[in-house]
Write a structure and sequence with these properties.
Strand order of the largest sheet: 12-11-10-7-13
Structural class: alpha+beta
Order of helices and strands: HHHHHHEEHEEEEEEEEEEE
Strand content: 15-25%
Distance between the termini: 71 Å
Mean pLDDT: 88
Number of strands: 13
Length: 297
């Protein structure tokens, strides 16, 4: 038993040492458990231990204060969306916030766990909380985790315009059931970073008109908009975090607009270019541009 507890705590400690982006595609075990009544059949797809995390996820959404140093405290403090209430009294600060749907799910999860105990099973063949963490991706500095209303598929464009380049053969979209990171707004468009279904990463813009629900971010993007020229042939990508797949190859001498520089494990110059008559924004490895600086006055 002690070895099992130490194993779990070791995993949680390792998890907390990872950056937020190194969490898997879904930092919520069940993203819509706060808005949809769960079913007995879907809960039986999980193992007994994981149902404990799913149960406590209901309360963690509302800042529940867990026992310091125990496994749920370690786990949820590693989640980018979790903020414990300043008031440690959960009955005052947390419980009143839960909806009738969440309380119904709380009762059902407890019932299923009781059924497993009565049958003497841990349902070890079921889904595990530890299956929901991937190697993640290297989030750009300045992007923060953003909690949006789940159940949305939002169109993504490479620049803040529906006339700009759109990846995935014109079908690029971000699911709000997964991790979404954002840097800020430009003219009613939100610059986001997310993991795609094929395992790559994409940075692009989502129109405010397409987003349902509130967006807890009011940062405005500030760019330099400086004329620049490529000093060698280089690849423009919208994935500066994992696969670096090119949108286009820019020949030496291509004129672009330099916007800013982002950092993760590398330095990336974020630029706007015209490719085959279409506006495209993407990333070039820093060092491949001759940037015309504004003259000081």
């Amino acid at each position: 038993m002690k070895r099992s507890i130490l194993r779990v705590l070791s995993l949680l400690l390792l998890l907390c040492l990872l950056p937020a982006a190194a969490l898997g595609e879904r930092s919520y075990l069940i993203p819509d458990s706060d808005t949809r009544e769960l079913t007995r059949d879907e809960l039986w797809q999980w193992d007994y231990e994981s149902l404990g995390y799913i149960l406590n996820e209901l309360f963690a959404r509302h800042g529940y204060n867990f026992i310091p140093g125990e496994k749920y405290d370690y786990y949820f403090r590693c989640m980018p969306w979790y903020t414990p209430n300043a008031n440690p009294n959960n009955q005052e600060a947390c419980y009143p916030q839960l909806t009738s749907v969440e309380w119904a799910n709380e009762r059902l999860i407890k019932d299923v766990r009781a059924e497993m105990r009565a049958l003497g099973t841990q349902n070890s063949g079921g889904l595990s909380v530890w299956d929901y963490f991937s190697t993640g991706f290297d989030t750009l500095q300045g992007f923060v985790y953003l909690q949006l209303k789940t159940g949305q598929q939002l169109p993504v464009y490479s620049a803040p315009s529906t006339g700009s380049y759109r990846g995935a053969n014109g079908k690029a979209a971000v699911s709000t059931n997964g991790n979404v990171f954002a840097a800020g707004w430009e003219s009613g468009w939100l610059l986001v970073m997310y993991e795609t279904n094929n395992g790559s990463v994409r940075v692009g813009y989502v129109s405010s008109g397409d987003i349902r629900g509130s967006v807890p971010l009011n940062t405005l993007l500030t760019f330099d908009y400086l004329p620049a020229t490529t000093t060698a042939a280089c690849q423009l990508t919208d994935d500066p975090a994992r696969c670096y797949a090119p949108i286009a190859t820019l020949p030496e001498g291509t004129r672009v607009t330099y916007l800013t520089t982002f950092f993760n494990n590398y330095a990336w110059d974020y630029v706007e270019a015209t490719v085959q008559g279409q506006t495209v924004r993407g990333f070039l490895r820093s060092g491949s541009l001759d940037i015309q600086q504004n003259e000081e006055k």
